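User: Teach me something about this protein's shape.
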Amino acid sequence: MFHLLKRPLAVVLSAATFTAFTLAPVANAQAACQYVLGFAEFQGAIPTVVGQCAGPVVHNAQGDGYQLTANGVLVWRKATNFTGFSDGSNIWYATPTGVRAVRAGAAADLREALSKLLSEHAFLAAVAMQKGYDGAPDFPAAAAQLDQNSLALAAAISSVYGEAAGQQFLVQWREHIRMFVDFTVGTATKDEAKRRQALAELAAYRTSFAAFLNRANPNLPTNVVADLLQEHVNQLASALDTYTVGNYALTCALVSEAHKHMFKTGAGLAGGIAQQFPDRFPGNPNAPAAELRLALDQLLSEHADLAAITMQKGVTGAKDFPAWADQLDRNSLALTDAIRSVYGDAAAQQFLVQWREHIRMFVDFTVGTATKDEAKRRQALAELTAYRTSFAAFLNTANPFLPQEAAAGLLQEHIGQLSTALDSYVQGNYAQTYRLISESHSHMFMTGTGLAGAIVKQFPDRFIPSGM
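Assistant: First, the predicted structure itself:
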């Protein structure tokens, strides 16, 4: 049975004010780290889950109590008398009949892993089709990175169903990529028969591949999988067609939709596999905490992908650069909505100003690179270095479970990947360019997991499904 992520993050979370979550130590905090009162009782019920005490109780402005443990955070809400614990993925909370759990677990990890690979496939396929149509010198490198992604997907299938199934998957997966190549060649050469043949083969492929997956896992309905594949085919084919006629805004929107669509596909595949192998993939891949994690993963990985292609288009002065820049800003607005849903309007506006500034710095770096203005490049990198520190401090102020040093480190890695990817692109080292773009895509899942984990630790009571 397929679960489709229909609710936006703003619906998953309720709004709160930005300033409410800066923790201040309790005036009479205990001198030695220990559990007392409700936290002691809660830890005593699940001692191995909570782990040893790692810090004193602190309170925020509303009087809510928090206490760090070796394995996560204990939380008490003054207004509701809620007592719970989270490790950033799973949640345990007190009820009149004992402690209950909401587990995302390995099933959510599987959903994230599949979504990461599938969304990278969609982005790389769209880029490779454009590069192939243009006869760009970096097309072979983009195609090679796309095949590296195919190998990683085959390895994921092998890890669940064995080597033989993984090899069968790889043969069929590579075939559908070959069909997209034929469609691209037919488009470039104005060979309408070749285009039609490629689309006919893709239509047949969606049915045969869906049947292949259903034989491996009856929980993956053939018609549902076939429909998901058809949507994928339509998005990529239409993205190329709109690119060839100069409708770049629609091209960019379709690439964005193709990226997002693969998170639906990842959710469906993970749900079916977890249902088939509950012992190997325990937990709920669609638990509220997992929904948050994948929503942030989707937005952040799209940001990295869009930033990389926008910088390429900018350095070459491509006609579609403004459209990619606009799509990147739409992603920024979507991220801002996510921040608003958690921390309120004031924090969202602060986020948007800083986030757009860091994109402006990347634009300056790109312009400096295009014009061979080394001073402008150095200035942009210096500003980005300063930004990573100030933005990490901003995040830590909103959520003390986001360590400033760790956040700054993640931001520095993001900066290094995108700036080096552009440098290698300009130098013609295309293999390195696309390897770095792939790493940048994956890195944002690490970042999304870290952000989501900190939010779940801060607000575990918001991630308990209604009715539990």
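Now, about its shape. The chain is about 70% helix and 5% strand. The CA atoms of residues 202 and 233 lie 7 Å apart. If you'd like, I can walk through any region in more detail.
User: That's plenty for now, thanks!
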